[in-house]
Fold this sequence. Notes:
This protein has 6 helices and no strands. With 183 residues, the chain is mainly alpha-helical. Helix 1 (3-12) packs across helix 2 (23-52), helix 3 (57-93) runs antiparallel to helix 4 and helix 4 packs antiparallel against helix 6 (136-157). The chain is elongated. It has one domain (3-157).
Amino acid sequence: MTFxxxxxxxxxxxxxxxxxxxxxxxxxxxxxxxxxxIAMAYIxxxxxxxxxxxxxxFIGLFAWFFGSAIAGFTFNLITIIPTTSVGIRRMHDIxxxxxxxxxxxxxxxxxxxxxxxxxxxxxxxxxxxxxNIMSPKTIINSTYLMYAxxxxxxxxxxxxxxxxxxxxxxxxxxxxxxxxxxx
Length: 183
């Protein structure tokens, strides 16, 4: 599967969790997300900075950081469903339950929650219950756990496809039946 085929397939199957996804489909999708995320994390904040027309370095740095945070949060929000669904199909491809995708989904959900907390603090909205449990030690430990769970999931995604049909469907890498029917 090529890069463009993988991206089109994942977008077309955004809400499809049945079936299987090949390694190439999953990893091409992650490369696409990485490319877009890097572009958004640097291009959008730079545009915000230029639009601010400021010579104050602190304000410029804040504008760049805030623009980057908004871009990352928005992109994570947009891509969480297709990324989760292709992850579930990838787990199906190696013969595992889609529930293994929680190792990837929970860190993404945590990142979204952290973004909401960050924006609420910036906007001055009080959310005392969440802020009381979010000590620096809790944040650091949960960040380590978040990265570790991503690594566990990505290692699982490196496994080869099950060669034959499994309980989740046909092998996406299987070649079509090419029996020679000519005489």
